[in-house]
């Protein structure tokens, strides 16, 4: 039997998605501590970070979240000098549509934060609205449209490259193909991290749980109400009703009342029914019911899109705390355990 090998770090971050990589990037600017990022996959952003719709949306009901989004927006407008890909946000604009009362509640935070927006009643549109999208929305069922010119689509790969490149330049170590099976607090206020199929035991003063859907499993012994993961589907469609050139100029559209959204994706349309069903931490399979849900929502709410043909589909997990807010904080009662999750 091989002897256990122990290695010490000042900070260990579990997860190399956006949460883990950004924590490593910014923390390495503030300290010369030895930082290790552990990722169970062979590369970064293999789950929710790399499989989502990449929408940058300012409209949210939680004021704290809306404030954080504004910090991000300002950061993307004036990116750090060490970013190798400075343009990570393409400002396509967004149309947030839905019932008037629901949208009024949603945009209260926007007034406080002075976020740029314009309100349009049904049948009226921004002057920049492409004719094909106007035709689509005139057949859709909603009451009010808010136009956000500074919303857009993120280049997730470029963002991740920026974060990881900057962190590695400052000597942050990334260790891939390493699955954490257990984290254990020690009497000296340190943490031990155990890896699957390894004799290696990692020790650290500060342990950051940024494991996405897997954050809940790691948090269960220490957090009374751990996170919950939900499966969501995304589809890439063919375009029969409109030309590809027309759709490429669309902003993204999000129906808040019916919870579905769509945006241009290369020469196609990316669309989601906004589904959410509880799901264990894993690479989730597709559920045919999601396509049925999408077809039903489009038929009732956006009939000009109801005839689209799907050519690709996938599912990913969205992880939430019970109160729906980010968990970015130390865990009370367990010194050195920090969360960047949900």
Which whole number gives the mean pLDDT? Answer: 93
Radius of gyration: 22 Å
Low-confidence stretches: none
**Structural classification:** alpha+beta
The number of distinct helices, counting runs of at least 4 residues, comes to 10
The beta-strand count equals: 20
What sequence of helices (H) and strands (E) makes up the elements?
Answer: EHEHEHEEHHEHEEHEEEEHEHEEEEHEEE
Shape: elongated
- The amount of helix comes to 25-40%
Specify the biggest β-sheet: 9 strands, mixed
Distance, first to last CA: 39 Å
Feature tags:
342 residues, alpha+beta, eight-stranded mixed β-sheet, 10 helices
Kindly describe this structure.
The chain has helices spanning 18-30, 48-51, 63-77, 100-106, 108-113, 131-138, 156-169, 215-219, 244-247, 288-301, and strands at residues 5-14, 35-38, 55-56, 89-90, 94-98, 118-121, 144-148, 152-154, 173-175, 180-185, 191-195, 200-209, 228-237, 252-255, 260-265, 268-272, 277-278, 310-320, 327-330, 337-341. It has 342 residues and is α+β, with helices and mostly antiparallel strands. The two termini are 39 Å apart. The model has no long low-confidence stretch (mean pLDDT 93).
Outline of the structure:
The chain is α+β, with helices and mostly antiparallel strands and 342 residues long.
Outline the fold blueprint.
Blueprint: E1 5-14, H1 18-30, E2 35-38, H2 48-51, E3 55-56, H3 63-77, E4 89-90, E5 94-98, H4 100-106, H5 108-113, E6 118-121, H6 131-138, E7 144-148, E8 152-154, H7 156-169, E9 173-175, E10 180-185, E11 191-195, E12 200-209, H8 215-219, E13 228-237, H9 244-247, E14 252-255, E15 260-265, E16 268-272, E17 277-278, H10 288-301, E18 310-320, E19 327-330, E20 337-341
Parallel strand pairs: 1-2, 1-12, 2-9, 5-14, 12-20
Antiparallel strand pairs: 3-8, 4-8, 5-7, 6-7, 10-11, 11-12, 13-16, 13-17, 13-18, 14-15, 15-16, 19-20
């Amino acid at each position: 039997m091989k002897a256990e090998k122990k290695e010490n770090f000042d900070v260990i971050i579990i997860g190399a998605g956006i949460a883990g990589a950004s924590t490593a990037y910014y923390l390495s600017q503030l300290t010369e501590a030895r930082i290790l990022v552990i990722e169970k996959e062979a590369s970064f952003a293999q789950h929710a970070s790399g499989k989502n719709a990449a929408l940058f949306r300012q409209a949210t009901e939680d004021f704290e979240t809306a404030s954080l989004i504004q910090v991000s927006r300002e950061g993307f407008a004036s990116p750090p000098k060490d970013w190798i890909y400075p343009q990570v946000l393409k400002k396509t604009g967004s149309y947030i549509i839905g019932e008037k009362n629901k949208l009024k509640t949603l945009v209260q935070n926007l007034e406080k934060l002075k976020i740029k927006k314009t309100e349009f009643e049904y049948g009226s549109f921004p002057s920049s609205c492409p004719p094909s999208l106007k035709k689509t929305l005139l057949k859709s069922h909603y009451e009010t449209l808010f136009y956000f010119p500074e919303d857009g689509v993120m280049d997730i790969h470029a963002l991740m490259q920026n974060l990881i490149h900057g962190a590695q330049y400052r000597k942050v170590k990334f260790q891939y193909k390493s699955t954490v099976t257990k984290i254990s607090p020690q009497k000296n206020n340190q943490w031990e991290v155990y890896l699957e199929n390894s004799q290696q035991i990692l020790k650290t003063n500060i342990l950051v749980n940024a494991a996405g859907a897997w954050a809940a499993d790691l948090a269960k012994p220490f957090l009374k109400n751990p996170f919950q993961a939900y499966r969501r589907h995304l589809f890439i469609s063919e375009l029969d009703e409109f030309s590809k050139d027309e759709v490429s100029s669309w902003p993204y559209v999000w129906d808040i009342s019916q919870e579905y959204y769509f945006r241009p994706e290369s020469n196609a349309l990316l669309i989601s029914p906004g589904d959410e069903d509880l799901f264990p931490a894993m690479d989730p399979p597709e559920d045919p019911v999601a396509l049925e849900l999408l077809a039903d929502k489009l038929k009732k709410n956006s009939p000009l899109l109801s005839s689209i043909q799907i050519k690709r589909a996938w599912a990913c997990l969205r992880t939430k705390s019970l109160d729906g807010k980010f968990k970015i904080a130390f865990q009370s009662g367990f010194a050195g355990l920090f969360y960047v999750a949900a």
